[in-house]
Design brief:
It contains 5 helices and no strands. By secondary structure, the chain is an all-alpha fold.
Length: about 140
């Protein structure tokens, strides 16, 4: 089955939000055992614009990234994903007047994991003539 570019980008947005939320939940459980956080909705709300930025950056890099060696691709994806998450966290700090630090877990880590995962989904190499297609015939 061929995955269209819009499907990959939509999947990248979903993975960005899910990765950020999953990391938030794990960090809350690790940093505050027995504590129940009710900020999952706020994390999702704050992560959706980051997912849009990840999709936009991935769409810009889609053509040039296809020619890169695999190790270069992973290095660039990880670096850009972390840089995008850090810039977004800094912007969130200034836009919220510092209240972004009141989350129950450090959002920079959450957004870094989500952005890197989303970039990996969006820019992962696509194998032409995969065995799944041959098996279906």
């Amino acid at each position: 089955m061929k995955v269209r570019p819009i499907g990959r980008l939509l999947g990248a947005a979903i993975v960005t939000v899910a990765g950020s939320l999953g990391t938030f939940i794990i960090l809350v459980r690790m940093l505050r055992p027995g504590f129940e956080s009710r900020e999952q909705g706020a994390v999702i709300l704050w992560t959706v614009p980051l997912a849009v930025l990840v999709v936009g950056l991935a769409a810009l890099l889609h053509r040039t990234g296809a020619r890169w060696q695999p190790w270069v691709r992973i290095l660039v994806i990880a670096s850009l994903g972390f840089a995008l998450a850090a810039a977004y966290a800094i912007a969130g700090y200034f836009l919220s007047g510092g209240w972004i630090l009141a989350f129950d877990a450090p959002v920079l880590y959450c957004w870094a994991v989500g952005a890197i995962a989303g970039m990996l989904v969006a820019l992962a190499p696509v194998r032409r003539g995969s065995s799944a297609r041959k098996a279906a015939v």
